[in-house]
Hints:
The chain is mainly alpha-helical. Helix content is 73%, strand content 0%. The chain has helices at 5-8, 12-15, 19-50, 54-76. The longest helix is centred in the middle third of the chain and has 32 residues, at 19-50. It starts with a helix and ends in a 10-residue tail after the last helix.
Amino acid sequence: MSVARPMFWTVPPLFLSGPAAAGAIALISVFANFGGILGPLIIGWLKTTTGSFSGGLYYVAGCALVSSVAIALVRTAPRVVVKTVP
Length: 86
C-alpha cells in the first residue's frame, strides 16, 4: 500500500488549487485517521462475529472497490472553469 501513496497525493492538485487544495488534503487526512481507527475495530468485530478473517477481508476489498470507483469518477468529471470579474 505504501507504493500507492505518492500517486494518490497527486490527485487533489489536478482539479484544485490554493486553499481548496489545502482543504482537500486536510479532509483526506481526516478520513485516513478515521480509517486508521475504525478499520481495525470493524475487522475485529467481523472476525468475532463470523469466526474467521474472511469477513474482514471482504470489508477491505469493498473499501478498495469503493475508493477506486470514487477516483475513477473524479478523474472523468468535467472540469468547470470559473471566470472572475475584474
